[in-house]
C-alpha cells in the first residue's frame, strides 16, 4: 500500500483504529476522519508509538451533519489529488431515539446518509485514481431488515435495533448499487461491502452509555477482538482477487468470528427496485448526486 492514500471514518477506536494501524503498517498514508478531534489525536498518538514517522493525520468529520461532510470533502479535495481507499467504517448502534442536525433518524442519517454523501462528494477523486476502492461496512444485523420508506425518520415509531438493521441494510444496498453504476460507466473504482462478525468494540453500549468493565471483560472473552473484526475490511481493501460487488465477512460459525471469506448477503439486497429507490431518496435527502463522468 506504499504511496496510497486512505480515508477511514470513525478511525479513533475499535475497527477503524485497527484498520488504520494495518494500513500504516502496509505503507499507506491514512486520514483519520473523526467526529471528536481529541479522540482522533489520541488515536494518532497511539499509532505513532509504533510507527513514529507514519504519514497519518486527523481531520474533522461528523457524519450526522451534512455541513461537516461537505466541509471535509472540500478540504480533502483541495489538498489531495488522489484517493485510493475510502473506508466507510463509522457507525452508531442502537441509541435512544434521536435525530441528526439535518433532521434524519440518527442511525440512518449517520450510518447510511452521511457515508452516501461523503462518497458522492469524493467520487471525482476516486474515479480519477486508478483502481481505487470504496469499502462500506455493513453488519449481520442487515439480515431480516427492511427499508421502511414511510418511516425513515422514526416519527411513526422507533425501535433501536430495527432501525440499526435498516441502516446496515442500506449500507449494503448502497455498496452493491454503487458498484453496479461504476461498472456501467466503465470505471476502475470498485465498491465492496464487508462486516466484522460480532466484535468487541465501543459500539456496544447500554442505554447509550459505556458498559461496566465486567461486561467488557465478558465480551472480550466471547466475541472476537477488534484486530480480528478489522480483517474483512483490510481484505476488502487489498485483495487483488476482488472485482467489486462482493460481501466479505468472517468464515466461522454464523459468520460471527474468523478469517475473511466471501459471503452471500440477505436476498433483500438483490431487490433492484428497492436499491434504486433508496439511491434516489438518498440523493434527495442529502442533496448529493453522483457524477460518474471522468
Automatic annotation (TrEMBL):
The keyword Iron does not apply. It holds the Pfam family adh_short. GO terms for molecular function: oxidoreductase activity. Signal peptide: none annotated. Gene3D superfamilies: NAD(P)-binding Rossmann-like Domain. Residues 247-267 are annotated as: Disordered. InterPro entries: NAD(P)-bd_dom_sf, SDR_fam. Keywords: Oxidoreductase. This is Short-chain dehydrogenase.
